[in-house]
Design a protein that fits this description.
The protein is an all-beta fold and 107 residues long. It has one domain: Satellite virus coat domain (Jelly Rolls, Sandwich), CATH 2.60.120.220. The chain is 0% helix and 65% strand. It is built from no helices and 8 strands. The strands form 2 sheets. Strands 1-8-3-6 form a 4-stranded antiparallel β-sheet, with no helix packed on it. A hairpin with a 5-residue loop joins strand 4 and strand 5. It is globular. The chain starts with a strand and ends with a strand. The mean pLDDT is 94.
């Protein structure tokens, strides 16, 4: 088994709950999410919500925050994901919150 520490995903939150990172089903056996950095890139307030989705299960909210003008939140998460599990997210305003998910994949 090989453990690869890496940036797992990055992008911008939308107003619709969307998968931000899904643990691959063909190349790994597990992934570990270490932290999620969220950065509000404009003025005004925005609400962010993050969810854990077990493969074949129901989304469960794991984090909620209000970010003001250009504020940042770092969620230290330490969650093990099995193949097909996902981290999902949404924001009250689309295209104004950048995210980076860091962790490791075990192949």
């Amino acid at each position: 088994m090989t453990l690869a520490i890496k940036s797992l995903a990055d992008g911008q939150l939308t107003t619709t709950k969307t998968a931000l990172y899904t643990a691959p089903t063909t190349t790994i056996t597990q992934a570990i999410v270490d932290n999620i950095t969220l950065t509000h890139t404009t003025e005004g307030d925005v609400t962010i919500k993050l969810y854990f989705l077990e493969s074949g299960g129901t989304s469960r909210r794991i984090y909620r925050a209000e970010l003001g003008d250009e504020e940042q939140a770092i969620m230290i998460y330490k969650k093990t994901l099995e193949a097909g599990d996902a981290i999902e997210g949404e924001a009250s305003s689309g295209g104004v919150v950048d995210y980076v998910i860091s962790g490791a994949e075990n192949a």
